[in-house]
Specification:
The chain is α/β, with parallel strands linked by helices and about 400 residues long. The chain is built from 13 helices and 14 strands. The chain starts with a strand and ends with a helix.
């Protein structure tokens, strides 16, 4: 079973969710009951657990509403509605139940309730440094040492990489992310040797000029990660979510650096071949739970991991918009979030702008949304413009409160 939080700040959002679940009017929650109430969405709840959940929910005043599927099928999902105290109550009761499934779910809800309120993190970096997350949105500037990344303006060569890095830091970038293998839809992988030969000299040169800068390497390969950390990289940004190279998890664990764990379906070559999900949030949460467990088994503590929902990686435009609207889907893990939305093709489809060069305004609009929602890191091509948007949002949030 999978669960995640649903933001139900407006009564109409709650009604719409009930309608999507096939609920009848009598199931609806009155608008005055929404304030102070949290909603957790359950998916794939086993039939044996339904009576237990209903019994324990009634005991602590939590409302549980099961979906009403088509005739002849079993309900797979439910909304659990209650105050934090009520939800903590049902989590405790389930965690001490005699049934194994109930105990497992109780612990999962307890972790989710604890994780959703964490908003400050300190990620250890090499040479005794640390990356502090929370409180404000950080900007990660993109440096592509490739000839085929989807946005030509992000491409740099060995000779221009240093000047672009210096410019990004001057413009306010908090992190620089270097990649040497395009991950655009349809992209073909490059060899380990080619990727390493592009990245290592650039990292060494930037580290020499910017000794305190936070440098990220965008790679899915263990050997490349090792070489890049030795050359000065501080963290590994893995678009495969530890899914491409079986040795990457152990390599990152041994290196002791933070990891960005991204969601992807398929590979860059195949990911946009008709992506579909029975339930997007449920399947992505199950993915992250499995990959976090995989990371921990390889020696990467959870407190060194950042989650990235993977905008555009095996998702339709509708999927991407839902993820941008609902970052709370992944807050139950208690980990900071990174969103990479810059100039993505979804904006081109919405605005009928096939050229990535025309998508700055839509990028900035989503940057403002994510900063308002408290997303911790935004990965972008245009540092100066995005920094200005984020700082404006921060001023509105603090001075206008």
């Amino acid at each position: 079973m999978t669960l995640w939080e649903e933001s139900l700040a407006r009564p109409e959002a709650l009604r719409r969710r009930f309608e999507e679940m096939g609920c009848s009017p009598e199931d609806m929650v009155s608008p005055e009951l929404v304030e102070g109430v949290l909603a957790f969405h359950l998916f794939w709840a086993p039939e044996t657990l339904r009576n237990i959940l209903s019994r324990e929910a009634a005991a602590v005043g939590v409302r549980i509403v099961w979906s009403r599927p088509e005739k002849g099928t079993v309900s797979k999902e439910a909304l659990l509605l209650g105050t934090p105290k009520q939800l903590e109550g049902i989590a405790a009761r389930l965690a001490s139940a005699s049934e194994t499934e109930a105990r497992t779910w109780g612990e999962q809800l307890r972790r989710a309730l604890a994780g959703r309120v964490i908003r400050q993190w300190r990620l250890p970096l090499p040479r005794g440094r640390e990356l502090r997350l929370g409180g404000r949105t950080l900007i990660m500037g993109i440096l592509n040492l490739t000839e085929d990344s989807f946005f030509a303006g992000s491409r740099v060569t060995g000779s221009s990489c240093i000047s672009r890095a210096l410019s990004m830091v001057e413009d306010g970038a908090d992190i620089l992310d270097l990649g040497a293998e395009s991950t655009r839809p349809g992209a073909v992988p490059v060899s380990e040797e080619e990727e390493t030969s592009r990245l290592v000299p650039a990292l060494r040169a930037i580290r020499e000029r910017l000794p305190e800068a936070v440098l990220s390497v965008d790679t899915t390969k263990a050997s490349v990660a090792r070489a890049c950390v030795a050359a000065g990289a501080d963290l590994v940004n893995d678009i495969s979510g530890l899914g491409f190279d079986p040795d990457l998890a152990s390599a990152v664990g041994e290196l002791g650096v933070p990891l960005v764990l991204m969601h992807i379906r398929g590979t860059p070559e195949t990911m946009q071949n008709d992506p579909n999900y029975e339930n997007l949030a449920a399947e992505m949460n199950a993915y992250f739970e499995e990959r976090l467990s995989r990371a921990e088994a390889a020696g990467i503590p959870r407190d060194r991991i950042v989650l990235d929902p993977g905008i555009g990686f095996g998702k339709t435009t509708a999927h991407n918009m839902a993820l941008l609207h609902h970052p709370e889907f992944f807050r139950a893990f208690g980990r900071p979030l990174l969103v990479g939305h810059s100039r993505k093709s979804s904006f081109g489809k919405i605005l009928r702008l096939p050229n990535p060069e025309d998508r700055l305004e839509s990028t900035l609009a989503v940057t403002a949304l994510c900063a308002w929602q408290g997303v911790e890191i935004l990965r972008v091509h245009d540092v100066r413009e995005n920094v200005r948007v984020v700082r404006t949002i921060e001023a509105v949030k603090t001075l206008g409160a």
